[in-house]
Amino acid sequence: MSTFLPYPETIFATFTSSSKARKQVDEVMAHDREFQEQKAERAKQPGADLERLRREIGVYVWLDSHCYGNGWPGYYYVRYHHPATWSITAYDTPALIVKKSKLRPDQVEFMERKCQETKAACR
Fold it and tell me: In this structure, what DSSP letter does residue 9 have?
């Protein structure tokens, strides 16, 4: 099974204003902060299943280097589920695609850190 898009999947991110892109990434950052706090609280509980906690809904990001999808390089793709659940046979639409050049430096730093965490989770 393959997915065919009649237009680049990054088209909406291309035309999104910088202020809206920054707001979207602020929401992603808030979601991640909340998730990390909940995960830390649950890890303190006796009998916590740390492997299950690690695979629960989090923020997973990768930077397209023109080898994924039909977009262009320089776009971050955001998903809210563990890479182990990513489908191999069908394209799973990201929750958010955002252009790197529209973000603030602190947001780029966050996204790069999440990219590294996603790569580690894939191993």
Answer: T
CA distances 27 to 9, 76, 78, 85, 108, Å, are: 21, 14, 12, 23, 14
Q: Decide if 40 contacts 57 (C-beta within 8 A).
A: no
Buried b (16+ CB within 10 A) or exposed e, 59-80: bbbbbbeeeebebeeebbbbbe
Sequential pLDDT tens for the chain (123 residues)? 455 667 777 888 889 999 999 999 999 999 889 888 887 887 777 776 666 666 666 788 877 765 455 556 789 988 887 666 665 545 667 889 999 999 999 999 999 999 898 888 777
Q: What pTM value is reported for the model? A: 0.77
Distance between CA 92 and CA 103 in Å, rounded?
Answer: 24
Q: Which two tokens stand for residue 41?
A: 């609280």
Distance, in Å, from the CA atom of 73 to the CA atom of 67, rounded to the nearest integer, reads 8
